[in-house]
Design a protein that fits this description.
With 319 residues, the protein is an alpha/beta fold. The protein has helices at residues 19-30, 49-59, 74-79, 81-102, 139-159, 185-199, 219-232, 249-260, 284-290, 298-318; strands spanning 11-14, 63-66, 106-110, 163-168, 170-172, 203-207, 213-214, 216-218, 239-241, 247-248, 265-269. It has a 5-stranded parallel beta sheet with strand order 1-2-3-4-9, sandwiched between helices. A two-stranded parallel ribbon has the order 5-8. It is globular.
């Protein structure tokens, strides 16, 4: 950390009340950023240019971290591909251009591992980003985010605008969405296993075959990566943000079941999609350029996430 770097920075964090964003805001405050500005959807609709202009005029930022996104699991992506594409493109493209016109010194755009080709060589290297089409179930979302890389590099080349682009892998941890319609795989599986264990259910049904693999990054580590990149990285090339390991969905379900005490049968539904066959990132560029290495062991992060969900579920039952 550069001493005093954040002390006088005016920072806007879109999506700062969300899952990753709330941890980024915490990390900024811990580093001395006086008061990161978090625009809320009911006040600033980031799909509308006038709202973006009003936001920038009000907050007067030196730096924008763009985390706001419409996200969800495989089911949500399949049901709303046009919405996922349109909302994410419109938010990102207009916000970046308005930030450039406003004179913002730096723009941090957050992409997604979903932008990688369906059959990219493992581990995914940034150089392979354009060597194929993304996995079909979340391609519209992945391509919408990928357009921000094109825009960032074009704005840098033509206008000298300092925009960087980060590619985080699947995130997990406390404060994530647990709604089955919109949640990602880990919170969805934790909810399913905890609810089954608590009710005494004899089995749970899980989408797919369990053969697909994923890489997961604990949310506090991801926030650390975003803040380090905002502080130290000024390059044109995209940078992977991950933990550098791979686990099958079958093994993931087993670990969660053991952690929550579910001893029933796990039934796989192969009529439902697995999604991308494999995912794991090469994280060497992040370590080289801004010193980021994930610190939270997966089992530890999983325990913290399960504990958080149990507390959340207990609080809901008491209401």
């Amino acid at each position: 950390m550069t001493p005093g770097f954040w002390r006088d920075r005016r920072v806007v964090v879109t999506g700062g009340a969300g899952f990753l964003g709330s941890f980024v805001v915490d990390a900024l405050r811990a580093r001395g950023c006086p008061e990161p500005f978090v625009p809320r959807r009911h006040t600033y609709d980031l799909r509308r240019e006038p709202d973006i202009a009003r936001l920038l005029k009000h907050a007067q930022p030196d730096l924008v971290i763009h985390l706001a996104a419409v996200v969800g699991g495989i089911g949500a992506n399949r049901e709303n591909p046009a919405g996922f594409f349109f909302d994410n493109v419109m938010m990102g493209v207009q916000l970046m251009e308005q930030a450039r016109l406003f004179g913002v010194a730096k723009f941090v755009a957050i992409g997604t591992v979903c932008s990688y080709p369906k059959f990219a060589p493992v581990p995914f290297r940034e150089e392979d980003l354009w060597n194929g089409y993304p996995e079909e179930t979340n391609a519209p979302y992945g391509l919408a985010k990928k357009m921000l890389l094109v825009q960032a590099q074009a704005a840098r080349a033509q206008h000298g605008f300092n925009a960087i682009f980060l590619l985080p892998v699947n995130l997990y941890g406390p404060r994530d969405k647990v709604d089955p319609q919109t949640s990602h795989v880990i919170p969805a599986l934790i909810k399913k296993c905890v609810d089954a264990a608590d009710s005494g259910a004899g089995e749970i049904v899980v989408w797919g075959t369990g053969r697909a693999t994923r890489e997961f990054l604990y949310v506090e580590d991801a926030a650390e990566a975003v803040v380090l990149a905002a502080e130290r990285y000024d390059g044109a090339e995209p940078v992977n943000i991950g933990a550098g390991f791979e686990i099958s969905i079958r093994e993931l379900v087993r670990l969660i079941a053991v952690e929550v005490g579910f001893t029933g049968r796990i039934v796989w539904d192969p009529s439902k999609p697995d999604g991308q066959p494999r995912r794991m990132l090469d994280t060497s560029r992040a370590a080289q350029h801004f010193g980021f290495v994930a610190r939270t062991p997966f089992e530890e992060g999983l325990r913290k996430t399960v504990a958080w969900y149990r507390q959340l579920a207990g609080a809901s039952r008491r209401i």
